[in-house]
Specification:
The protein has 378 residues and is of the alpha/beta class. The protein has eleven helices and 16 strands. The strands form four sheets. Strands 7-6-12-13-14-11-15 form a seven-stranded mixed beta sheet. A five-stranded parallel beta sheet has the order 9-2-1-10-16, covered by helices on one side. It has a two-stranded antiparallel ribbon with strand order 3-4. The structure holds uridine-5'-diphosphate (UDP). The site of uridine-5'-diphosphate (UDP) has 13 residues, from helix 5.
Length: 378
């Protein structure tokens, strides 16, 4: 077995200490363990699976930290994740609710028909292009301009402006354009939220999926690495850290801005509530951004009760859980400085959404974890 540390160096108990039992940590742990390295995973929470943690309530897999749907266009990533769970054929088709009416998402012919009354793609294009032309945006500099140059002003006002302002806690003209390009615009009747070839939710929940990756690996729950840094560092030669990078350095260059979330979960004594996995509330005045009804992530089962979660976005303050990085200019500059600091610690490897301050989808997290392991071993 190839060893990464000097033969003469002090003997440690583990080759790798992995901080965080979320998706990135689990993939890295699995790959290193598979190659014969001794791995210890420590996790601050009392459960594995990070923010994709699911818990069974009333026989339903509840996405405790917001709805997650796995999707990718890369066959190798799809094959990889399918080793650890069977995925169902769930297709995400969220609805948007705005001033008493439902609209299909993402922006497609159903939406255009509902909003403009048009039936054919060329009519929809004409409507939207007229609005785009009138807005006269040459090069979109922020999310507002990007959104208008994608779908025009009417859809921007109804389905984007309020939701985005709630989600990010600032006006759309103060946000980076890339956020809105996550959503497709399609001139066809197709409500699939994603363009990827492969999509689904692990049957039996994400926690089981992550547990399968971590099989045979020592995982210590309820351990806050940052509180026991010296002790834990002494246990391993190399460390993979998947928490917030600014927190790792005790915010010494300043705090990065994150968005946090608050969840209100409810068990409802009826077989169904909203008839769909996700409904987005796009009006600014409705305090939550979306409601997830978890039974629909694993369709085809009959339940007497249903579980819903209202999701509220909030400004991150010290002590809150970080969910979304706010990748604007100011934070990107600060993150680069933290990256420079990180380079001074070659035995500590940062990964995942929090460790690299990146708005990643799950497939990218898996890919990045596999790449990190490859780079460590080469
Ligand atoms: N968005 C929107 N209206 C919606 C849904 C999304 O304006 O009904 C915008 C919003 O700015 C959001 C971004 O699109 O932050 C990305 O949405 P996505 O659903 O990918 O966000 P996530 O599921 O990661 O929270």
């Amino acid at each position: 077995m190839q060893k990464l540390y000097n033969i003469g160096a002090m003997k440690k108990n583990y080759d790798y200490l992995i901080v965080g039992a979320g998706l990135f940590g689990a993939v890295a742990a699995h790959e290193l363990n598979k190659r014969g390295y001794k791995v210890l995973v420590v996790e601050k929470r009392n459960n594995i699976a990070g923010n994709i943690y699911t818990e069974e309530i009333e026989g339903i897999q509840v996405h405790k930290y917001g709805p997650h749907i796995f999707h990718t266009s890369k066959k190798e990533i799809w094959d990889y994740v399918n080793q650890f769970a069977k995925f169902n054929d769930f297709i995400n088709m969220p609805l948007a609710y705005y001033k008493g009416k439902y609209y299909n998402m993402p922006f497609n012919m159903n939406t255009f028909h509902q909003i403009f009354g048009v039936d054919k793609p060329e009519e929809a294009k004409a409507c939207i292009e007229k609005e785009i032309k009138a807005a006269n945006i040459k090069e979109p500099k922020n999310l507002e301009e990007k959104a208008i140059s994608m779908v025009g002003t009417t859809i921007y006002e109804m389905l984007i402006k309020g939701y985005t302002q709630k989600q990010w806690g600032r006006p759309c003209n103060e946000l980076p354009p890339f956020i809105i390009t996550r959503l497709p615009v399609r001139y066809e009747y197709n409500n699939n939220y994603f363009n990827d070839i492969y999509q689904g939710v692990p049957i039996g929940g994400y926690t089981k999926w992550i547990a399968n990756m971590l099989k045979g690996i020592e995982v210590r729950l309820g351990i806050d690495y940052l509180e026991h840094k010296d002790e834990l560092n002494a246990l391993a030669d190399e460390i993979i850290y998947t928490g917030e990078i600014d927190k790792f350095f005790d915010y010494k260059l300043g705090a990065l801005e994150w968005r946090s979330l608050r969840f209100e979960e409810e068990i409802i004594d009826k077989p169904d509530y909203q008839g769909n996995a996700v409904v987005n509330y796009t009006e600014y005045e409705v305090p939550y951004t979306r409601i997830a009804e978890h039974q629909y992530f694993e369709p085809g089962q009959k339940h007497h009760k249903t579980v819903i979660t209202k999701e509220y976005s909030k400004t991150w303050t010290l002590g809150d859980e970080a969910y979304y990085p706010l990748n604007n200019e100011k934070n990107s500059v600060l993150y680069l400085k933290y990256q420079e600091l990180a380079k001074q610690n070659p035995h500590i490897h940062f990964g995942g959404r929090l460790g690299t301050y990146s708005y990643y989808n799950m497939d990218v997290v898996v890919e990045k974890a596999l790449q990190l392991v490859e780079s460590l071993l080469n």
